[in-house]
Amino acid sequence: MVFTHLGKKVNHEEIRMTEKQVFDISDKCAKCHQSEYAKWKSGGHSANYSDIFMNGKHNLDETPYWACLKCHGMYYEGTIKTLLQKPLQVDGVWKLKDLSKISEPTMPCLTCHQFHTENAQLGRTAKFDNPKEISYERASRNPATAWYVRDDHRHIRADKLMKIEMFNNGKSVKVSDDPAQKLCIQCHAPNFAHVTGTEDDRTPTGVHEGLSCMACHSPHSNDARNSCKNCHPAISNCKLDVTTMNTTYADIKSTNNIHSISCTSCHAAKEKTKL
Question: In whole angstroms, how far apart are CA 136 and each of 73, 128, 141?
Answer without folding.
Answer: 38, 11, 12
